[in-house]
Request: fold
Amino acid sequence: MSKDWTHRLPDLLEGYTEAAPEGLWDAVQAGVVAPRKRRGAVVWWSAAALVAAAAAILLLVFLPKPAPLQPAALPVPENRLVQGAAPELPTAPLPDKPPATAFPKAFPEIHSEAVPEAATDAALDVIPEAAPEVIPEVTSETEGPESLPHETEPQHPVRPDRPTPGANPKTHPGAKPRLQFTVTSGAYLAQAGSAVTQGYGISANPGMPMLSKAIGSNPISVPMLRRNQASTTESRHRQSLRLAVGVSYNFTDRWSVASGLSYTVLRSDYNTVSGETATFSTRHLHYLGIPLSLQWKALEWKRLSLYLNAGPMWETAVGARLGSRSYVGAALSSEQAESPSVRDSRWSLNAGVGIQYQLFRRGALFLQPGLSWHIPRADSPESYYTVHPLLPDFSFGYRFTF
Amino acid sequence: MRQFYERYADYLTAVCSRYIPEKADAKDVLQESFVKMLGALDSFEYRGEGSLKAWSSRIVVNTALKSLRKSGRLRYMEALPDLPEESEPEVERVPAPVLQQFIQALPDGYRTVFNLFVFEKKSHREIAALLGIKEDSSASQFFRARALLARKIKQYLKENE
Reply:
């Protein structure tokens, strides 16, 4: 048998073509390693995002300060408002800067009769540092003789914050929305004073949850007595920002595992009003977390894919900031900030449905709504996690894929 | 890049599907091949139309072979008894798509050796080295493939006379 006929085949099929598979060009574009420019762009964007994330974390850890308050908006009863010039500051003002102390796991409960004599001051309704330690636990009262018009019944068994000006955070009704945080990598906008608070964080940081939005409020009104006057403490907790760097590894066509490092700021605002005195404080808790999730690709169309993911995340508190301002009437009487030590580690379980767009061969944009359940711990400081253990989560970001 | 793709995508799809008939697998191989090509296009030394075509089809063939090896579809390529000799078919009377279809229908091992020998002009020694088989096995696979193909072509011509 001659081989000649097979050697004619290349010529016979030389001009033969078949239609390229549908979506091939899109797939090629998604997987292109080549163009140096594009590879360079990936490197530059990734580097820029990492720098921006680092800058955002540094800013949040080292620079948060209590927001300026508008004394004019204080909810002081009209008959107690100071007219004209600001009142004189008390002769025995607050301790200058209390030493940094461990953040209390629980707020001590206060009883009016237990307030030591030394704590009272004619003009300022604040109890000094040492006062709470000797205060026995008592039941709270719903109305005091000096209770304010906007006071409400307690909604939870609440432990008011330690009644020092440095430990009682702020937020009061009537405050206007304001720009809370801006960094190169994004912006965070917080609406304070409303029943619903919203936090937005946007970043070009490569990672898993790049933007977190949490909606919720925890208005807690607690009448408490200090120096024979009723006080109301209102607290609100928010998850204000989450940034992360992350990677995912595809071990089959559909299954992948993802991990990384996340950074979360939990903000709590406290507002304590007693008579003419109001103290507004803000506490920021900074957490670092390591998420681990299993991801299953349900659908794929061109560069888009729909996936489900679930997994745990371990977080530990790495720092805290407390800032507060006290007012008597419309006048600022004291202002202070401190960095208490805080110890808190926690686990959460997370699940979500995400859409991913393969931007590069090794990088993708994703959008992922989901749910997080923060496993309660008795010794954790009160925060957004403890008040809202089950909370919706919404993230988007950039993910390195391998 | 887009221009390059549009110019060669259909031709390279035909080359690829000769080795890998399954459309989904072929798409993966083509994607990987184009990614390689586009990544190395800057460094390609153009020596006329034919050189670019040959270079790109070589990449597709190498990627297809890699995929076949990885999938384990070439494992059973052992020496087989030759089929009875067939007389030379009138291959020119068969349309190209039908020829392509007949080649695609060959068993994986036969088809791979046949393509490498006929279209890539490889010797059985080279094929053996490429696929990790004995030289005799390569020759045997080729003769068997050729006999099968000749039989199909004859049958086709008989049915379409």
The first helix of chain A runs from residue 4 to 7. The two ends of chain A are 51 Å apart (CA to CA).
